[in-house]
Each structure stands twice: as C-alpha cells, then as structure tokens.
C-alpha cells in the first residue's frame, strides 16, 4: 500500500512539474515579451523596462521559470500588474467562494447520483429505470449556464426565493453564504449528477452480471443482498474515476457559472485579468486550478487502492 | 426417496426450446455425471435446479429436491435453500470470487446468511470449511484475497463456500475444465472425498467423458437439450444403445490412421534455447528482475514426423512456440529450420518463416471478423517475395479451402458464417496456403467438442500423409497427444524433462513429473467399443 | 443492418434531431428568414409571431435566423475539434498499443494525463490570454482536449485486439506493427470511434456554447448560440424568449447527438446495453 502511494506521489510531482512548465511556456514564452503584451502598443520604453524589472523578466528563461516555481512554493505568486496587490492575496479571497461552490456542487451531485443510480440499476427495465435514464439524458444535454439562467428566471425573478446574483459574504453567516451559492451549485451539479447517475447505474449492472455475483447467489443471498454486499463496492471503481474527472469539469464549470451569478470567485478574476491583460494573474489561477485537478486525481488513485486490494500489491 | 428427481423438465428462453423432457435422479451419496457437447443443455439443467436461470428463461416440469419442487417455490424460499440444501461450484474459478473481499469473509458469508451466529463463530466455521478443502489456515490465512491464490486454490475456496453448511446436494458445472490436469485430479479427488464424508449427492456436469467416467456412479448423456441415454457407470460404457452415445465414445478414443513414416533427417533443430523476460522492478528504485521462461531447451523434429509437446500452463510452451516462429528473439541458443537460422542478426528470417505456419486454439479469435475468407486464408502470402496475383491467387485459395474439406465458394463469406469446427478448417487452410514444411498446432483441437475434434484430427493426419507435413503438436491434453504423435516432449518450468517415442513415454515414464501427469490424466475404462 | 437501424428508437430520434440542426445550418447558407446582419431596432425584443416564429432580439434580429446561422459556428467548431482529436489521438493510441510498455507508450500516456489536467476551458483561457479571443481558439482548445480522449479509447481497445490470435497470425505472416494496426486493429475499433465521435461532437457543441458565452469563442458579429445567451442574460426578465430558444437549440442538438451515439452503440454491438453515462 505504502509503495503504491509513494509511486503515485512521485508521478504527482512529475505531473505538477510538467504542467507548470507548460503553463509557463504558454504564457510567458510563446507571446514573446509579456511586458510589451501587457502594456499594449503604445508603451513607453522606460515603463516597459520598469515592468520588465518588476516582473523579473530580465533573466534567462530557465532562471525565470525556476524563480516562478520557487516563489509559488513559498506562497508568492507575484504581484498583479493591474491591481498592484499580491496575487496570492487576491486568489485567497476568491478561493473562499470558488472552493465552497465546487465542493457544494460535488456533494449535491454525489448525493443525487448514488441513490438514483442504485435505484435505477436495481429495477432495471422498470418505469423507474426508464424515468431516471430519460431525466439524466436531458441532464447530460443541458448547458449548465443556460439552466442557471432559467433558474434565475424562475426562482429569483418570478418567485423571488433567491437573489439573482452576487454573494452575500461569509460575514453574513454561513447560511446566508450558502444560500447565495445554492442556485449556482445546483446548476453546476445537474449535468454532473446526470453523468454520475448513468455511470453508477451501468457500472452496477456490469458488476451484477459478473460470475462472482452468481456465486454469491448460489450461497443463498437475495438479489438485494448481493447488490449491497458484493456489487456496490466493486462498482465503485469506475465511479471513482468519474468523480475524479468531474472535479476538473466542476472547476471549469464554476468559472462559467460564476459569470451567470456575478459571484466574485476565481472565474470572475480570470476574465477580469484577461481583459486587463494581466498575465501574472491568469498564469497563477490556471496553475492553481491545474494543481487542484492533479491533486484530486492523486486522491482518487489512493482511493482506488482503498477499494481494490489488487492494487495494494501482494504481500 | 431420491434426493433430487427431475421429471419432464422443459425450458425455453424467449420461446426458444433449450431443454426437452429432461429426467434424472440423484440419490444421497451418489455421484451423477451429466455429459454433453456444447449446446446440449447440461449447464441449463444445473442452473434450473439452483433456479439461477437467465431472466427470460421459463421452466416447466418437476424438479423435486429434498421433497420440494423448486419450480414451485418462492424466491425467498429458494434463497433459504441455496447454500444450505444445495450448493454449486462453477467453471471459471478466476472470476467466481469477489475480488475485493477476503476468502474468509466470503466463506463465512454462506454461514451468516443462513444461520443466526456471531461473526466470530462464522469465521471459525469458515476456517474449518477451508481446512476441509485442504486450505489450512497456517498456509492460507482467512485474510487472503482471491488474487493471491492460484486457479486451483480459488476453486477450493468456491467449494468451501458451497459445502460450508454441508448441503444435501452439490452441483459442479465443469469444475475442472479451466484447470491443469494435475490440479484437476486433486479437485476431483477432493470432491469425491467430500461426497463420501457428508453423504451428499453430487451432480457433476462435464464435456469430458473420461473425467466423469472416472468418478461418477451414474451417467446421463445429453444432446440438443434431451437425455439420450443414462445408466450406472461403468456398465453403461459396455451397454450403450443410442447411436449418439456410441459416437461420442468413439470420438473420445478416436485414433486417426497415419501412414507416413518420418524420414531420418532433421527439419527443425532447437539447440540450447534460453528465453528470459524482464519482470516488474522491485520497489521504485529496484532493479528489474527477470524470469526464465525457456531454460536450455534442445530437441529436433524429423521431416514428416509428428512431435508432441506437453506441459501445464506456464511451463513455457507458448514462449517456445513464439521463438520457433521467429516472433521473439531468444537470449541464447539456436533455432534452425533445415539448417537455416530463424533469426539472422536480430531480424527474423523471411525465407525460413515462410516454411512454417501455425494453427491456434481459439476458432473464434483466430480471424479478423471484418475480412472475407479469401483475404483471411491468403494472409501468409505476405511472406512470399512474389505472391500469386489474380487467377493464380484465386486458384491457390480454392485449392487450400478444398484441401480442408470446404468449398471454393466459401471464400466470399465472412468468418461468422462458420461453425467452430469449420473455422478450425479455415485456420488449417490458412496455414497450408504457402505450402509450409512445418505446421505448429498450438492447442489446435483443445477448444473443440470431441466429435468435431476427431474429424479435425483425421483431417490433419490425412494432410500430413498427402503433403508430407511435419507437425509440432502442442497440447495440455495427454490423451490427444498420445493418439496423434510419434514422439513426445514433456516440459516443466521451462525445461524439457523427458522425451522419447510416444508409446514408450506413455507406457514407461521415467521422470517423476511425467508420471505425475500421466497419473492425473483421466482415462476411459479400458474396453473395446463394439 | 439498415432495418435494424430503423427499428432503433434512440437512433431514429437522435438522427432526426441532429439532421434538423445540420440541415438548418446548411440551409442558412442559401436562405434565412431574415438577414442577420441588418438591425431593426423598431422591432426589438418582440415575442414570437407569424413574422418572427421565435421572436426578435435586442437589435430586432430574427432569432430563428440567428439560430440557423449560429448552428454553423457550433457545428463547425465541434466537427473540426473532433477531427483534430481523432486525427492525432487515434494514431497516438494505435502507436502506444503497438509498442505496449515501451518508452513511447509511457510518454503518450503521461502526455494524455497531462492534457486531462487542463479542461478545455483552461486551454481556451490560456490561448485567449495570449492571442485574444476567436472561434479558432475554441476549436484548438476543444480539439486539444479531444486528443487524449481518442488516444485512450483507441489504446484500450487496441490493446485487447493485440492479444487476439488473428493478430498473432498476421505476425506469423510476417506483417509489421504498422501494417497490423492498419489492417487488423483500426477496422475493428472504428465502431467504437464513431460512437465516441458523436459523443465528443455533442460535448464540443456544449463546450463551444460555454466558451462563446463567456466571450472566449466566436466574436461578434458572427452569430453563435453561446453569444446569443450571453446577450439575453441582462434582458432575461424582459424578453425570456431570447434566452429560451437558443438554449433549446443547444439542448436539442446535444440530446440528438447523444441519442444517436446510444443508438449506434446498440446497433454495432447488441451485447452492450444502453447504459451510457
């Protein structure tokens, strides 16, 4: 088990190193001179030089990469050119919206998908199964930001249960904060829950047709008992993969949904920085999101080993 | 009163009849063998007793077990009976166990679903059940997972689960088909012992007449969903009435006529061949290990000879085959065909490779389903420098197909239009098309039903005589090797441990491993079939 | 095969829905109810009527015409992205499978993992940050994301095919890895690729809509479904039809493609149940 985790850890570090290199090259090297890009056409030579100095662009490319990585390792993401504040501070503030939103949505989608998937699989071919499959077929096809807009129309504008956008702030209390995140989280969770329900159902059905299920039935277990005791844990292996992949879609989806609801999260920050040509902020946020995706996938790999003894290695 | 009495059992799946008026009985302490080829309905009969049929299946008739007709029982009652009154062992031990649960938990579960006992007590009894199937706790702790056990050991765990509550009836559906012959013998002995100890009835399903003949008290022969003949064993072998039973028996002991005599000149020479594989490295920074699959193997095949190579799975026979065919380079030694090396300077030698071909085991996996027979059969032309074109190519394809008993018009068909036996004929046609000297038969008849197998063996013998072919006949099945080879090699753990004239080796084996293999091979009772 | 296709409900409905939108896109090249370049402020934000079956937008443009023209963008972006994904992913997957366990395999698979860490939105953000927004960005971003999807699928399927005896027979016939991949592996993964292709097509439409919605995709004046939704957002309480119809267009196209993928899967392999995620 330890060896397996160590191996995964090594590949985690390599992935992070390569990903950071890709981001660095894409944003700081490909465009040529980032400082000139950020200042636009009419930049004065002396302002340009000053910005270069400030951004540390005077070193060679490997030097700049290493100092960028070294900075990040110490929590220093550089200083935003437009806001003149440390990027780490800006990200920290925004993270308090984006992270709870993603976790809220992930929780919702898991809470919906597990019972729905198990229910549909255990009554395969019934009206329940057809209903679940039909609804999830729609859920997979619906653009989440459009669904968000429709929810705003119904629940915020017509029914006035929620506000149409903005964030109450955590200082208003936990529930006020969560309330502002509820519609966005539902919008994010719906397509993910649909996908997860379908994976859960098909994985369970696959497992239920395995030989060992028949062996268990021959021992005298009822259909329900084999489902809960044997099929469910085995069916979790593909489901875990999807949950891991969903996290990256949730991060991406959150960036878009934040725009629908005018939430001041990382997504808003990215778009503001793009229009302000603030490459330093874009670079850091992208790196942070990629970091999150890679770390979550590492966690999923470790979870595999917890579920599946074959991965823990022979004793 | 019989323990199990099946009367007038009919079974249909989606209105397609599978079983017709099946009847058989099992007495306590009796072993009843059900024999049949694929499609005979033998497994469906077993599943009907367990009531673990596919959902669309509808059964009528009477299946009375222990005084109760299982066809009339509710699902809840059936669950109470399965595992307690009747247990079942399946064919494929590699997939029959839950991969993420320990063997102790899986055996204990049988007890826990049927009796109100504590977990500790259930584990205690699981321990006893595993000990009874010869998996003692000191060597096989209850905390083992299935992937840590071999196929034979897994089958023992399945048996332990089935007998943990000492059921009245045990059903074993091809319990040893997926296992090596020595493991098979051990499992069969184990089953026999358990029947004697517990006085339970055993319904044993098999395609292999010899396996069942060895141990059953009573035989039931099935074909196309009907019982064609049944009676006590071994008497039944002498009094067989039904033409199918007789044909089945004849096919099982079939000895093809071979006229050709091997010439006294070597065709294939294998000298001191060693083949190592790299294995996974130990630890993150460890060195990759290596595994010697073929260890210093030397032998030769004379022109026109039929040489058998026998050994159990993992003994290195497949690796050796790939080396001979020039698919993989060896680490040491030489492989020469007619004096020419198979590999010259790290590259396979085309001139040599076009003189040998191979026929594989699986008639279903041997052909690309998207190509027509003409293209499939002519694939080896790739080895020729100037492959025949146009009419010459068509003629060669037609000749190859006709030589294996198919029609030239079959070349326009796709492979799914053929049965297993016909596919194996097409595989032989593919091997013949470039007129090779040596044909390697890699378990080429192992997947076939006995009657089809006899036909293919006849065909091979006939082709050998007519075309002067040399065969390397690789098989795990000693009885087939005995029927069709001149000389035999016995391989164990990468080495050839014994070689000699087939008749001599079978009559008077020298190496302990050969003796063990021969002792384990099930044999039909000795008699003349008249 | 054709008869089986016609009795497959998912396939028929899916194909019909998809053809409606592909047809609408094609028709828009020669005819639209009203030119989308001309603004008609007097008739802005009109609800559906005989003259404008789906109403008009905030510049008085006919929404039906906008949807028809917008279908071009969505379909073009998604199709090109699938072509990029297949064109690069399939050869990579075939190569990785042919050289299983080799350095090449390792590099390809790790490269895949790396790309998977960058959702297409992040790729689009990076491209836009450097080169500015355009429909081309959307194509590249979605296309790059499609590469590992096809590479993995192809490799997985090819690996199991490489263990088949007919591949061994081809090797015995002296055929090399490239030839075997072309003759024996690729033809037997095409069904799988077609099914995955329709799925990635539908995901591409969703992704293009999302990118255009946040301004990283097609730029005005080119009409696109995502942009139409972005424009409608501030007016949603005044003119909900501006938001509803383009959204329905996306939903129905994606639904149609997904149903088609399900149907094709059933058709190609009746053993696999209709259990798509």
Description:
The complex is a heterotrimer of chains A (315), B (530) and C (277). Chain A is mainly α and 315 residues long. Chain A is built from 12 helices and no strands. Chain B is an alpha/beta fold and 530 residues long. Helices cover 34% and strands 27% of the residues of chain B. Chain B has helices at residues 42-50, 75-81, 103-114, 119-132, 151-163, 181-198, 209-215, 235-238, 243-252, 317-324, 350-353, 373-377, 390-403, 420-432, 450-467, 478-484, 502-507, 512-520; strands at 4-13, 16-26, 31-35, 57-65, 68-69, 86-89, 169-173, 201-206, 218-223, 226-232, 266-281, 288-302, 306-310, 332-337, 340-341, 343-344, 347-348, 356-359, 438-442, 470-475, 487-492, 495-501. In chain B, the strands form 5 sheets. Chain B has a 6-stranded mixed sheet with strand order 6-7-8-3-9-10, with helices on both faces. The model of chain B has no long low-confidence stretch (mean pLDDT 90). Residues 271-277 of chain C have low confidence and may be disordered. The two termini of chain C are 25 Å apart. Chain C has helices at residues 2-6, 9-30, 63-98, 103-116, 120-131, 135-162, 165-172, 177-213, 225-233, 241-268. Chain C is built from 10 helices and no strands. With 277 residues, chain C is mainly α. Chains in contact: A-B, A-C, B-C. Chains A and B meet through α1, α9 and α10 of A and α2, α3 and α5 of B.
Give a brief description.
The complex is a heterotrimer of chains A (315), B (530) and C (277). Chain B has 18 helices and 22 strands.
Descriptors for this entry?
heterotrimer; B: 530 residues; alpha/beta; 6-stranded mixed β-sheet; 34% helix; 27% strand; C: 277 residues; mainly alpha
Structural class of chain A: mainly alpha
Rg of chain A is 24 Å
Count of extended strands of chain A: 0
Task: Give the low-pLDDT segments of chain B.
Answer: none
The portion of residues forming beta strands of chain A comes to: under 5%
Number of helices of chain A: 12
Name the helicity range of chain A: over 70%
Query: What is the typical, i.e. mean, pLDDT of chain A?
Result: 85
**What's the shape of chain A?**
globular
Largest inter-chain interface? A-C, 58 and 46 residues
Shape of chain B: globular
Binned, the helix content of chain B reads: 25-40%
**Biggest sheet character of chain B:** 6 strands, mixed
Total helices of chain B: the number is: 18
Regions of chain A with pLDDT < 50 over 5+ consecutive residues?
none
Task: Give the termini separation of chain B.
Answer: 36 Å
Q: What class, by secondary structure content of chain B?
A: alpha/beta
SSE series of chain A: HHHHHHHHHHHH
The percent range for strand residues of chain B is: 25-35%
> Average pLDDT of chain B, to the nearest integer?
90
């Amino acid at each position: 088990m330890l060896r397996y985790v160590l191996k995964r850890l090594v590949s985690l570090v390599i992935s992070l190193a390569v990903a950071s290199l890709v981001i660095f090259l894409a944003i700081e090297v490909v465009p040529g001179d980032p400082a000139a890009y950020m200042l636009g056409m009419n930049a004065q030579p002396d302002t340009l030089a000053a910005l270069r100095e400030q951004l540390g662009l005077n070193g060679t490319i490997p030097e700049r990469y290493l100092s960028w990585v070294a900075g990040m390792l110490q929590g220093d993401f550089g200083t935003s050119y437009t806001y003149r504040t440390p990027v780490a501070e800006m990200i920290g503030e925004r993270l308090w919206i984006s992270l709870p939103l993603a976790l809220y949505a992930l929780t919702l989608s898991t809470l919906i998908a597990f019972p729905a998937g198990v229910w549909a699989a255990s009554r395969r071919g019934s009206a329940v199964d057809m209903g679940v499959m039909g609804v999830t077929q729609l859920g997979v096809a619906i653009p989440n930001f459009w669904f968000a807009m429709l929810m705003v129309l119904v629940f915020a504008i017509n029914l006035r249960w929620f506000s149409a956008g903005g964030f109450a702030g955590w200082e208003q209390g936990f529930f006020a904060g969560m309330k502002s995140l509820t519609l966005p989280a539902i919008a994010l969770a719906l397509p993910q829950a649909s996908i997860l329900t379908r994976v859960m159902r098909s994985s369970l059905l696959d497992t239920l047709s395995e030989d060992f299920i028949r062996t268990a039935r021959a021992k005298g277990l009822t259909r329900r008992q084999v489902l809960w005791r044997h099929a469910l844990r085995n069916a979790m292996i593909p489901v875990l993969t999807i949950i891991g992949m969903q996290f990256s879609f949730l991060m991406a989806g959150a960036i878009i949904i934040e725009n629908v609801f005018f939430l001041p999260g990382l997504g808003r920050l990215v778009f503001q920085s793009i229009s302000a040509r603030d490459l330093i902020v874009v670079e850091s946020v992208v790196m942070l999101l990629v970091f999150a995706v890679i770390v979550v996938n590492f966690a999923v790999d470790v979870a595999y080993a917890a579920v599946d003894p074959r991965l823990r290695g022979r004793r | 009163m019989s323990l199990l009495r099946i009367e007038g059992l009919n079974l249909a799946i989606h209105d397609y009849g599978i079983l017709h008026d099946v009847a058989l009985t099992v007495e306590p302490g009796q072993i009843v063998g059900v024999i049949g080829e694929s499609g005979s309905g033998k497994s469906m009969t077993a599943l009907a007793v367990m009531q673990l049929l596919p959902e669309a299946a509808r059964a009528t008739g009477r299946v009375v077990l222990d005084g109760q007709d299982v066809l009339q029982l509710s699902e809840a009652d059936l669950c109470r009976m399965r595992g307690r009154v009747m247990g079942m062992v399946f064919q494929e031990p590699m997939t029959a166990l839950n991969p993420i649960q320990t063997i102790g938990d899986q055996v204990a579960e049988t007890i826990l679903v049927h009796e109100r006992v504590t977990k500790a007590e259930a584990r205690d009894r699981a321990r006893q059940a595993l000990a009874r199937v010869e998996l003692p706790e000191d060597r096989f702790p209850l905390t083992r997972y299935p992937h840590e056990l071999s196929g034979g050991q897994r089958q023992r765990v399945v048996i332990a689960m089935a007998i943990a509550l000492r059921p009245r009836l045990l059903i074993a559906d091809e319990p040893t088909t997926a296992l090596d012959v020595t493991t098979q013998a051990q499992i069969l002995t184990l089953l026999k012992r358990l029947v004697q100890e517990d006085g339970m009835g055993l319904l044993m399903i098999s395609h292999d007449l010899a396996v069942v003949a060895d141990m059953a008290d009573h035989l039931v022969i099935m074909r196309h969903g009907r019982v064609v003949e049944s009676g006590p064993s071994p008497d039944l072998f002498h009094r067989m009435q039904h033409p199918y039973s007789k044909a089945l028996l004849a096919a099982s002991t079939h000895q093809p006529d071979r006229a050709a005599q091997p010439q006294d000149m070597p065709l294939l020479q294998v000298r001191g061949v060693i083949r190592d594989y790299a294995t996974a490295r130990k630890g993150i920074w460890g060195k990759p290990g290596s595994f010697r699959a073929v260890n210093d193997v030397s032998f030769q095949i004379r022109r026109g000879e039929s040489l058998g190579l026998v050994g159990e799975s993992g003994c290195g026979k497949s690796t050796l085959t790939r080396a001979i065919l020039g698919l993989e380079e060896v680490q040491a030694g030489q492989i020469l065909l007619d004096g020419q090396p198979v590999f010259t300077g790290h590259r396979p030698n085309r001139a040599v490779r076009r003189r040998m071909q191979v026929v594989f085991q699986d008639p279903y996996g041997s052909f690309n389903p998207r190509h027509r027979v003409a293209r499939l059969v002519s694939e080896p032309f790739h080895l020729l420098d100037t492959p025949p074109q146009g009419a010459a190519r068509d003629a060669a394809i037609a000749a190859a197909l006709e030589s294996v008993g198919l029609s030239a018009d079959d070349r326009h068909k796709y492979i799914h239009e053929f049965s297993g036996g016909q596919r194996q004929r097409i595989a032989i046609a593919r091997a013949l098309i470039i007129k090779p000297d040596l044909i390697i038969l890699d378990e080429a008849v192992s997947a076939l039903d006995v009657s089809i197998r006899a036909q293919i063996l006849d065909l091979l013998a006939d082709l050998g005589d007519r075309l002067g072919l040399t065969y390397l006949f690789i098989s795990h099945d000693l009885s087939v090797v005995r029927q069709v080879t001149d000389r035999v090699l016995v391989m164990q753990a990468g080495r050839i441990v014994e070689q000699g004239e087939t008749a001599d080796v079978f009559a008077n084996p020298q190496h302990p491993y050969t003796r063990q293999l021969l002792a384990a091979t099930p044999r039909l009772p000795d008699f003349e079939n008249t | 095969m054709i008869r089986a296709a016609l009795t497959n409900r998912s396939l028929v409905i899916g194909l019909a829905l998809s053809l409606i939108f592909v047809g609408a896109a094609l028709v828009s090249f020669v005819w639209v109810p009203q030119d989308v370049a001309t603004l008609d402020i007097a008739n802005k934000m009109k609800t559906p009527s005989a003259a404008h079956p789906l109403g008009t937008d905030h510049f008085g443009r006919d929404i039906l015409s906008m949807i028809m023209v917008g279908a071009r963008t969505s379909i073009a972006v998604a199709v090109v992205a699938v072509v990029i994904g297949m064109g690069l992913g399939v050869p990579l997957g075939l190569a990785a499978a042919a050289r299983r366990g080799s350095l090449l395999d390792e590099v390809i698979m790790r490269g895949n993992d790396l790309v998977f860490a960058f959702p297409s939105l992040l790729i689009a953000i990076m491209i836009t940050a450097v080169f500015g927004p355009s429909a081309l960005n959307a194509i590249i971003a979605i296309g790059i994301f499609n590469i590992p999807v096809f590479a993995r699928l192809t490799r997985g399927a090819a690996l199991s095919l490489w263990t088949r005896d007919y591949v061994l027979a081809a090797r015995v016939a002296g055929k090399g890895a490239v030839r075997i991949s072309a003759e024996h592996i690729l033809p037997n993964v095409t069904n799988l690729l077609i099914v995955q292709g329709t799925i990635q097509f539908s995901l591409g439409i969703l992704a293009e809509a999302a990118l255009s919605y946040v301004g990283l995709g097609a730029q005005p004046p080119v009409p696109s479904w995502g942009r139409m939704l972005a424009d409608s957002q501030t007016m949603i309480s005044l003119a909900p039809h501006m938001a509803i119809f383009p959204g329905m267009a996306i939903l129905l196209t994606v639904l149609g493609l997904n149903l088609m993928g399900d149907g094709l899967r059933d058709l190609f392999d009746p053993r696999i149940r209709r259990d798509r995620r």
